[in-house]
Amino acid sequence: MEDRIGGGERARLLRETTIVREETLTHEARPFGSSAEYCPFEKVRLESEMDSKSRVRSKLEPAAAYKTMEQDHYRS
User: Fold this and answer.
1) 37, 43 Cβ separation under 8 angstroms
2) Alpha helices per DSSP H over 1-76
3) What is the mean pLDDT of residues 36-62?
4) Confidence of residue 9 (pLDDT cuts 50, 70, 90)
5) Reduced to 3 states, what is the DSSP secondary structure of residue 36?
6) 36 C-beta neighbours (distance < 10 Å), count
7) 4-33 b/e with 16+ CB inside 10 Å = b?
8) More confident: 18 or 53
9) What's the pLDDT at 73?
10) Where is the composition biased (Basic and acidic residues) (predicted)?
């Protein structure tokens, strides 16, 4: 009975190790600076960066528009 449990655990660990090894090999085989679609972690990081930049930009655009209108008013 213990052999079956131990065998199942070994099989699970072997599968996980194989998956990690395959992901590592395929990631290293890709050219440096290639698209983020290759690496899911990099893709998630880039998407979150883009989201935060767009949130900041959307907050700053109205202020920039107001400043431009104010400058135009004083130039006239």
Assistant:
1) yes
2) 2-29, 40-75
3) 71
4) confident
5) helix
6) 13
7) eeeeeeeeeeeeeeeeeeeeeeeeeeeeee
8) 53
9) 72
10) 51-60
Cα(42)–Cα(23) distance, rounded to whole angstroms?
A: 13
Distance from chain centroid for Cα 65: 31
One-letter amino acid of 20: V
pLDDT computed for residue 4 by the predictor: 59
Query: Distance between CA 38 and CA 50 in Å, rounded?
Result: 18
Spatial CA neighbour of 27 closest among 8, 9, 16, 42? 42
For residue 41, give the nearest of 55, 24, 53 by alpha carbon: 24
